[in-house]
Amino acid sequence: MTDRLESIEIDVTKGVCKINGEAIRDNITELHIQFEQGVWTVQRTSIYLGAMELPAKEG
Q: Can you list the positions of beta strands (E) in the chain?
């Protein structure tokens, strides 16, 4: 999924990190910001931990 980058707000003292006004959640494990030849690129990596129960196998 590719979103248009509108804004980045990082204030380490206040613990604020927002991309396009949306706070970075706790499940973000990496954040890469790059500016090259006039183009900004932001890459976020997140981990989703969940569980699901599968039906028991018959037989």
A: 8-11, 16-19, 22-23, 28-36, 39-46
